[in-house]
Write a structure and sequence with these properties.
- It holds the Pfam family AMP-binding_C.
- The structure is a single chain.
- This protein has about 450 residues and is α/β, with parallel strands linked by helices.
- The protein has three domains: about 100 residues, no CATH class; about 240 residues, ANL, N-terminal domain (Rossmann fold), CATH 3.40.50; about 100 residues, ANL, C-terminal domain (GMP Synthetase, Chain A, domain 3, 2-Layer Sandwich).
- It contains 13 helices and 21 strands.
- The strands form six sheets. Strands 7-6-8-9-10-11-12 form a seven-stranded mixed beta sheet, with helices on both faces. A four-stranded antiparallel beta sheet has the order 13-14-15-16, with no helix packed on it. The chain has a three-stranded mixed beta sheet with strand order 1-2-3.
Amino acid sequence: NSYEFIVSFLAASWQRGIAAPLNPAYKQDEFEFYIEDVKSAIVLVPKGAWAAGAASVKAAKKFNAAVAECYWDAAKGEVALDVKDYGLLKGKKEKVLTAEPDDVALILHTSGTTSRPKVVPLTHRNLTRTMNNIKNTYQLTSKDRTMLVMPLFHVHGLLCGLLAPLFTGGSMVVPTKFSASEFWVDFNTHKANWYTAVPTIHQILLKNPPPSPKPEIRFIRSCSSPLSPTVFQQLEETYNAPVLEAYAMTEAAHQMTSNPLPPAKRKAGTVGVGQGVEVRILNEQGEEVPQGSEGEICIIGENVTKGYLNNPSANASSYHKNGFFRTGDQGKKDEDGYIIITGRIKELINKGGEKISPIELDNVLTRHPKIGEAVSFAIPDEVYGQDIGVAVVLKNGEKLTAEELKAWVAERSAKFKVPKKIYFTEIMPKTATGKIQRRIVAETMMSAPKAKL
């Protein structure tokens, strides 16, 4: 999170470019996958990355993408762009274009459970609709100032922490990274009055002494992972502010539902009601189920992507004939129409808001020369909500410790993808037809007293 990122993102969008933010924690293999997948024309990196031979630079060079360092030039008082290599752009001269509402402005990858990550294109219309929805939900004005602690390479931070406040004439405080000890100091110093975060950050803040003086907080927003009613209550009691849990996903350009501001009713354990989108609970046939019955949460609205990029099979399975997008989450509506999420139809691991594809992790693990089979799955975690568990079958005669495997994964994947628990087993649980089902593997491993950790 930096001023340079914000300016470069807005500049790309303004001149009809397409921004594709990436997690700076990625390893070279991961950068290579994403750069190749979206056919990146130029890769923007921090100052010093070129000389240091950073992983992102090496990945860009492999595909002959242009590389430019983007940094704050204090002498000129502006963000500078220092092109180090023009790559495939050498000799090309393109005029600056004006963006149109239905131009793609942003592309992000969403992790898949049974296939490679899907590419989600979001248009200017998608983004501005979400910005307007967020503005209306929380009655944002130019008087509001937020603490931006969510990463800008995800829709949560980008849409709710940055673009929606800018859209309303508001402002934001942008620390380079989240610090529990500095959060409230910055909040008070810069007179912020709201923030949005994942439950993990709320819990970390609650473990620290309450701020003094106590800040005037208009509301606290929670999103990207389920917020327990206990934490909801602790937040409201500690900070004397309404806590509004929301529900969002990349394909909807972030926000779909939210609990409303007072004096309207807010309910712990629910994600509120549709905000600028229509939400229905549908069965497999696309028919609405009775109030209180469970089904798949489905949405339709101007903020929802029209479809994944170059993925007709995913598009065919992700939309009902009536146009409603299938979220893959199971839920129901209560008597007031508030949405209660009851489970995940998809098998993604949701670690504090970071969505991790189990199949992607499986593929990394099975590259280890001593591993015969590996299955990744979600395990409960007090801090993150979910963390990563892995069942591993070693090849005959091989020996491997959990710490050795974690270190091996850490060299090839981002830190947040390193498994918390590794279960070594001689036989991988399978169905009668020989198929591996993650749910069965997870239940077997977590309930087996003899499983080695």
